[in-house]
Write a structure and sequence with these properties.
By secondary structure, the chain is of the alpha+beta class. It has one domain (about 1-85, about 90-120). Helices cover about 20% and strands about 45% of the residues. Helix 1 (about 1-10) runs parallel beside helix 2 (about 105-120). It is globular.
């Protein structure tokens, strides 16, 4: 799965120079990984995944000069946003909302990339 994720990031027209910052394979089907890619001179997208037989923990973050501005994750620490618990989104103003992500990176990353592009165009709907 990691190779497919990396291929998706490398072929995105939105991202420049995706770099594997961390890759720890636990087995053939389990790993922890962190990938960063430039979006603009000021913005960086970071993809963090911890995948194993129980599922995938994720955090996708858009940074401006090292400060997170948009974040999607499935850490189970916000049960009050339970429509799609534990999936949630932190916007640039610190507001927390439900996320439509599923925990399947190959399905979720294209949605994240669309939202990053919408953010760049000033039309984010996340």
């Amino acid at each position: 799965m990691f190779d497919d994720i990396l291929r998706l990031l490398n072929t995105s027209s939105l991202l420049r120079s995706p770099q594997v910052v961390e890759l720890i394979p636990y087995s053939q089907d389990a790993f922890r990984a962190k990938v960063r890619a430039e979006v603009t001179d000021e913005l960086t997208l970071q993809v963090w995944l911890n995948h194993n037989e129980r599922g995938t923990r994720y955090a996708y973050q858009l940074f401006r000069h090292g400060k997170p501005i948009l974040r999607w994750d499935n850490a189970p620490h916000h049960p009050e946003h339970g429509a799609n618990f534990p999936h949630h989104f932190h916007d640039e103003f610190g507001q927390l909302t439900t996320s439509q992500l599923s925990g399947h990176p190959l399905a979720d990353l294209p949605m994240v990339l669309v939202e990053v592009e919408n953010y760049l165009q000033g039309t984010s709907k996340t």
